[in-house]
Amino acid sequence: MTEQSPVDERPSAVAALFVRHPLWEDALALLFGTALVALGIAFYTHAGLLTGGTVGIAFLANYQAGWSFGLVFCLVNLPFYLLGIWRMGWGFTLRTGCAVLLVSLLAELTPQWVAFAHLSAVYAALFGGAAMGLGLLMLFRHRASLGGVNILALYMQARFGLRAGAVQMAIDASIVLAAVFVVSPDKVLLSVLGAVMLNLVLAINHRADRYVGVS
């Protein structure tokens, strides 16, 4: 038996990256990923925090006007589907639409399933942000997102090689800082901390040169 050299192993290793996810894996990723995001949203809502992107816009509408988080989240994502179809394709956009609908639904239902007798705002910022980051990571690796800034960040990564997490971190931080007129300064600072945690999860774990998800 001959020993296979590292050079011989390289083609099979590269080919393994492009094995398509079966439909059932994509479905489970959408379900589990959006459930994690909804759990993070429950953390933030209870602590009075917010985050960036279209989720942050939905938070602001909920805090300021009492509008339904799920409804606002669905509506503000509509314009970004055009960018998704144009640059990322119909498959990506359809999976993203399903993810947005699931988050909208689960964000309304999760508070009925999970209640907090006590929740530290710092813990909510850190682990709520981490939960949303992990949920987004699952969606990204199955060629889906939560619309809005997620689509823009993935487009920037695909088009210019910029890390999706780094792009989203910059945009999200700007949105959260703009919320100083809606929530108290301490909540803004904690929200920035949560946004850093969320995007740190993405920046470390989602790189175009390290993982390629095919669905």
From TrEMBL:
Keywords: Cell membrane, Membrane, Transmembrane, Transmembrane helix. It comes from the Bacteria. The keyword Transmembrane applies. It is a multi-pass membrane protein. InterPro entries: UPF0750_membrane, YitT. PANTHER family: UPF0750 MEMBRANE PROTEIN YITT, UPF0750 MEMBRANE PROTEIN YITT-RELATED. This is Membrane protein. The chain crosses the membrane at residues 27-47, 67-86, 98-115, 121-140, 160-182, 188-205. GO terms for cellular component: plasma membrane. Signal peptide: none annotated. It comes from Ectopseudomonas composti. The keyword Signal does not apply. It is found in: Cell membrane.
